[in-house]
Amino acid sequence: MFVQHFGLRHAPLGKDLPEPWDDGTHAHLAQRFNWLLHSPGLGLLTGEPGVGKTAALRSITNALNPHRYLVLYQAENDFGRIDIYRGLARALGLEPSYRRAQLWRDIKQRVHELADTRQITPVWIIDEAQNLPPEFFRDLPAFLNFAFDSRDLISIWLVGHPVLSQTLDRAPYAALHSRIQVRVALKPIVERERFQLLIVHALKSAGCQHTLLADSGLELLRQASKGLPRLAGRILCTAMRLAMHKGLNHLPDEIVQQAIAELQ
Fold this sequence. Notes:
Layout lengths: L1 H4 L19 H14 L3 E6 L5 H10 L6 E6 L6 H11 L8 H18 L3 E6 L7 H10 L11 E6 L1 H7 L5 H4 L2 E7 L5 H14 L9 H11 L3 H17 L7 H11 L1
Parallel strand pairs: 1-4, 1-5, 2-3, 3-4
Helix pairs in contact: 4-5, 10-11, 10-12, 11-12
């Protein structure tokens, strides 16, 4: 396997990366995330597919105290609104009712119990939120109404593609738009120096002890990946597999170009 061939602990820019590279962008997200921990509410995180939204949130939530915060992650959201709340109910350890009114009451009672009895704040992360049905966006403000809207007991992060932000800016979702306390948009890493630092960090974190890519190879990788870490990682892994079969311990430009071509 290419990981062993190159003496790595794991694939660069893969899901095993212990700590995402950060030049301040993730610190900014972490700060905003903490705001919603101390003052629960609704946050919006957007970015192109593969920019690292989920990885950043995974890194942040892994450091949370489980005695104070209950992280509920939901990514399968291309269903009806009742299915979304039923998924939340199961994550909270409830047997979900088929009736929406009872389902909401049960969930809210459990959230009250967590807050008042155990001093635990649920953090509901809804990934791929651009797939949520319109009815869910219209319902969510009412769901967030606890005790005559006098208490905020749950933090919710809507995570999705840039189109999600555009959707929530539309008039039909004005009530939800007004409840968004934090907005963060992650951008591709397109600047040469920043992209180079990303790749160097990824290879070093994976255990790479020598230079794999020439500057020209890095530039090929940057342009082909469009600054998206996930795509850059796929190209790197494909190039390493190709190089391994040729008995190479580095990635010449022609190998990088071949990897790019295979993924197009």
